[in-house]
Structures are given as C-alpha cells and as structure tokens.
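Checked the freezer inventory, then went back to the computational side. Two predictions to log before the end of the day. The first one is the construct we discussed on Monday; recording sequence and tokens without edits.
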Amino acid sequence: MLNVAVKAARAAGAIINRAALDVEAVRISQKQVNDFVTEVDQNSERVIIETLLTAYPDHGILAEESGSTHGNPNADHIWIIDPLDGTTNFIHGFPVYCVSIALQVRGKLEQAVVFDPTRNDLFTASKGRGAFLNDRRIRVSKRTRLNECLLSTGFPFRPEDDFDKYLRLMGDVMQRTAGLRRPGAAALDLAYVAAGFSDGFFETGLQPWDMAAGALLITEAGGLVGNFTGDANFLEQKECLAANPRIYAQLVPVLHKYSKFAGADDKRDVAEAVKTLGISRAAPDAPL
C-alpha cells in the first residue's frame, strides 16, 4: 500500500513540476478570501484518486479539493489526501509545497507519504516501521532546551481567524525560542519536524488532509503530536502541535491557554498536563 501511495504522489508531483515551468499560465480560482485552488490541485487530485482506486477499488478516499469521500465511504481503509499543500506558495513560484497522502485503517493512521516535488524529497512512514526520507531513517531532533529550538507555524489568513489571539500566541512562543518560521505548507512542516530539520510545529485551522501524513511521520520518528492541550485525538480538531517529546512537554503549558478546547474554566494544573504526555518532567530550565 505504501508503494502505491508513493506511485500516486510521484505522479501528482510530475503534474506539479510541469505546471511550475509556467506558473502564470495556470488557471486559479478562489475558494474564499486568501484560499486558492488551481487546475494543478485538481489534476493532481484526480491522478492520485485514479491511482489509489485502481489498486484498491474497495477503499475510500477523503480528498481536499473535491471535499468528499470517493470510493467506499464506509470502508475500513480511508486514504486522506492533499494533492498540493502550499497552493499559495505554488502560484507565486515560491518553492515550498508538497503532495500529502495518508492511509487510515479503522481510524488509525497506518501509512504516510509526503512528497516535495521541487527537491525530489520523499518522506514515508509505515506504522511500527519507522519514518524515512529518501530511504534514509529519520528521527526528531534531540534538543531539550526550548530557547535553543527553531519552530515552524502557519499564520492565520481567513477572515474568521482570530488574528489578535494568534499574534499573542506567536509573541509568547517567539520570546522562548531561537526562531519562528512560516514556510506555508503544513504537511511539509511536519515532515521537517520528523526529520529533525526543525524542533517543533504548531498551527490552528488545519484540516485532516493537512496533518494526517505528517502526524504519522512524527510519531514514527519518535516525536509527539496532538492539539494545544496535549490531546492526541486531534485530527478533527483543527489544532496541531508536534515536537520531540521533551520540547512537546515544554510547549503544551505555553500553548494550552490558546486552545479552543481549554476553555475559560480550565483549571487543569500544568504539571498534570505534562504528566499526561507520559513524560516525568520537562527540561530543567523549561521556561514555563
């Protein structure tokens, strides 16, 4: 199944790379303010769906652009795909975007592919078998001090987003870390955390197809992923926090107050929040 997903991702990547040679000729439409879709997204999605359903006609597919489940919606096997994560980057010629494909079996993530066509970087993971970049085993970073970490995030861009809250959140994080980056493709951001290129990632407003493949890469690379309160049941919650275990434990106390799941009457003690992660304590100098 992983090989079929890789085949589908590479086929979509070929479509994206051909279109990138003349981005100005690509037809663009707008789903909502600052949320774009192109014929490249749609063509990439089409070839992924065809490849997966040809191999597994009884499976279901949850696809971003068509916004629906193809194949068998009641199947035990559901593919979750984003044919072009980072569309805004793509239409500006900014080379940070990817194809994301994940397989969920009875509600559990089992296979993951994130393909960066601009660099020909292929991130893969199978549950229980580790995560890889171009057939090389990858692991999350080993940093233990939050003030030495480089984190990535995504900025709010929809009219309904709470810009002021997110600015406070980013200000809170920026004062505690070595740097904050906004590359613009969540699936690739998660893959980079899995590979140890960055130490953590957080963002709100995400959909399952933004996070599914990257989430499995993270856990198979030894990291943790959940919502801002540390809840691992995050895929449908539009919140994502990912990092190596020690940094994750330090970020949860910082981010949990910005979570829509914390609530004004959330009295949970910070130490208890960290305890639920299965980590005895945060780093000695953790700036809580």
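The second is the one RB wanted added to the comparison set:
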Amino acid sequence: MNQSLNSLLSPFLTIRIISLIITLAKELRDNMKKIVAAVLFILLTAPFSWADILKEEDLFIAGYIEGILKGKHAADVRVVVQQGHVYLPATFANHENYEEIINEIGKHEGVKTITLVDYDRVEALRRIWIYPGESLIKPLRADRSWPDFSLGYRYYTEKDYTKNALDVNVGKTFSIYRMGLEGAVPVELGIQAGVFSTFDLYDFDFDVINSDFFWGVPVTAAFGPIAVTGRFYHRNTLTSVPGKDSIGYEAADVLASFEPNEWFRLYGGLGLIVSARPSDYGRLLFQLGAEFEIKADYLSVPDTIIALNINGSEETKYILSWSFLVGLEVAKNALVSFEIYDGFDSGWAYNNRIQWIGLGIHYY
C-alpha cells in the first residue's frame, strides 16, 4: 500500500518541485533589477567597514604587545597581528621570560592565537595588508567620472533637453589588498564601482535623463610622491532622451599622479577602448588635471580645494572637455563645491557639447 502510494506521489512531487523552481526563476528574473540594485547598494555603502574595525583592533593589539615587550621586558621584537592572530619571530623563544610573556599576551582581549614563525615570515606578513583603507591613488575631485557619493544641482546654459537637473552619484574606490608596507614599493589591488544618474527637474517630475554604470579593477603602485594606476574598466550608459544613442565600452588606462607636497597635485593618463557599442566609437582617451589645497590656519575654517580636470578623446576629435571645481572640505573626505563644466558628456550628450554650472556635495 505504502509502496503504491509512493509510486503515485513521486511523479507529483517531482512536477511540484520543478514548478517551484520555475516559479522561483521567474521571480528572480522579474526582480533582477531590484536584486542588482540592492547588492550594489550593499557593496558600495557597507562593505569592508568591518575590515577597518578589525584593522584598527589589530594595530591596537600589536602596539600593546610591542609596548609590553619593550617597556617591561626590554625586548625590541617585531609583532604582527592579523584578525587577532599574533605572530612573533621564532628567536623570541630564547627570551628568559618567554613563558611569562606569552601568558601575559594571551590574556589580552582580542588575542586568539600566538604563533612563532621565522623572522623572514614576520617581515613578509608586515608587508601585506588586507583592506588597508584609503587607496594609494587619491580621488580626482574634478573628474566627473570618478566614483563617489555626491548630490549636485546643474543649470545648463545651453538648452538641449533640460535647463535644470539633479545629479545623484553612488560610488567608491575600495582598496582590498596591499603589499610592500615595510620599505618596499607599495602595490595595491582595488575595486571601483559607481552609478551616475541625471534627473530632469522640469516640473519636478524627476525623469531620468541619463544613467551611467561603471566598474573597474585598478592596480596602483606608489613611488614616493608618484602614484601610478593601471586600470581595466567597463562603462555602460543608458539614456531616455529621444534621438540620442546609449553607449557602452570596456577600456584600459594608465594614470600617473605627482604630489610633491600636501597642497599641490598634478596628474595625467592615457586610455584605450578595447570594445565599444557602437562599434565605430573612437578608441583613444587622455586626461590631465591639477589640484590645489589651501590649508586653513584655524580649526573652525575648512580647507579650500581648487581642482581642474581636462579630458579628450578620439570620438570628440580631441576637442577638450574641462571641469572646474572650488570646494570647502567641511569634514574628512567631505566636500561642498561650486562647479563648472564645458565639454562632451556620456549618454545623451556624448556627441554634443554641453555647458553647465552647479553646486554639489561630495563624499569620497
């Protein structure tokens, strides 16, 4: 009886499971935009914050242990801590108070394990830093295609599709792996991602004029005041403007930044589009820029940032586009700015010249 019942139910259950899988697949397909948006929001706003906490905790533990060893036991020993795991050179086992010191270190909150390794291994560990925080290449403040969190008002001096627009950008450059912290040339692997959207403020309908989607993988090396970044990236632009074509491409570029002191910076780079839609889109790109930072003498007065970015491309017959920014750094990495732009843009204006002036709030 049970065997007969199982024989009857088995096809039914199989069909039911297949039906559920198909339904789930349809739901995922129908809500893919929402899922991608949610994942992108998480990636851009929350990631690696836990890594910063772990890094600060590890540095605190390492400083605490080195303080004990040097101050209390007259031992100048290299210490590396990674996510609570303490590494000491193997030669430390010869210290006369070795057992006492190990017990004392082990009682510290946050210490998970204590491992003795070869001295060369300790040095190698000190040259590796997971999620090191701010990138070796600083944000290009006047570059409108550099990922950041920003909100801006734009007034277009030449009417093409609108006169008043709102720019909303969500993006970030994440440094995820760095080597060479102890004397060697620092080399860093990062991730960039961003969404740049322009909304029409006509009648306050907030219609989307243009959305620019960007992701890239930069590799950066620092040679004293010079930072060099090689990057592969993808850009895809969608526009709702009638008669205007959307574009998309994959490109590689190299950017060098020279910062001889804390108030001046000069940068420039070249790029090559390796694949484009439309296929006849120009391939060569170049970029130049300069930044000045006027340090305030009083704590209550914010620093002033003056930045200029210049772009050119084969697609625009190397006619220059430029953006100018003057801003007040009201908090660390936070800028309130006045901006001017004259040149070609992505999406709805990639083959038309536009001019605008505006105000913005940026967080890099």
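For RB: Residues 45-50 have pLDDT under 50 and may be disordered. Residues 2-30 form the longest helix (29 residues). Let me know if you want it refolded.
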